[in-house]
Specification:
Oligomer: single chain
Shape: globular
Distance between the termini: 31 Å
Number of strands: 8
Helix content: 25-40%
Number of domains: 1
Radius of gyration: 15 Å
Number of helices: 5
Strand content: 25-35%
Largest sheet: 8 strands, mixed
């Protein structure tokens, strides 16, 4: 199984057109509550055609710096738990694309477009979701597939659903073509 190691702060330089600092902090808020660093995700991949020798699974090992950790501690007094999980998942999605599909620049969609981001160079939509409940992971993933495939551009789609669990997390990442 391939292992990908990264600092969560790498998403900031990898996606300079986006403001992702708050997403990185939210990811650390969740990861640091579940485990010591680095936090590990078991990533299952379905339908992806990545040139980086990733087949059906990989291990994503995520670390963070102390500056981000200090901000993460305050996040629980600032945001609601569900919002933290959703934005933390955006951070992990941005990290996966930065490390495995670096040519996929993310552009935020408008509300109601059935996706979170457009990936114009790939002509794909991206839907990302986060949860703290492992029992919700597969159901949420199926729901997000249906949702994102109804995007108004009728583009093919990537779906990334992250579960922040203890002692490690899970990510289901899949690619789907329009029928």
């Amino acid at each position: 199984m391939k292992t990908v190691e990264s600092m969560i702060e790498d998403i900031i330089a990898a996606h300079p057109d986006l403001y992702l600092e708050h997403c990185a902090v939210m990811a650390v808020a969740l990861m640091s509550r579940k485990s010591l660093k680095p936090y590990e995700f078991m990533v299952t991949c379905e339908g992806l055609n990545l040139s980086s020798n990733v087949e059906k699974s990989l291990l994503l090992r995520v670390s963070w710096d102390e500056f981000t950790a200090a901000k993460a501690h305050r996040m629980w007094q600032t945001e609601q738990r569900k919002a933290i999980a959703e934005r933390a998942a955006v951070a992990l999605g941005a990290l996966l694309f930065a490390k495995l599909v670096p040519e996929a620049k993310m552009r935020v969609t408008r509300l109601g477009e059935r996706a979170d981001f457009w990936l114009p160079r790939l002509q794909c939509a991206l839907e990302v979701s986060g949860t703290e409940s492992h029992s919700e992971l597969s159901r949420r993933h199926r729901e997000k597939i249906v949702q994102v495939l109804s995007n108004p551009l009728q583009w093919n789609a990537h779906v990334i659903v992250c579960c922040f669990d203890a002692p490690h997390g899970y990510i289901e990442w899949s690619y789907h073509e329009q029928e």
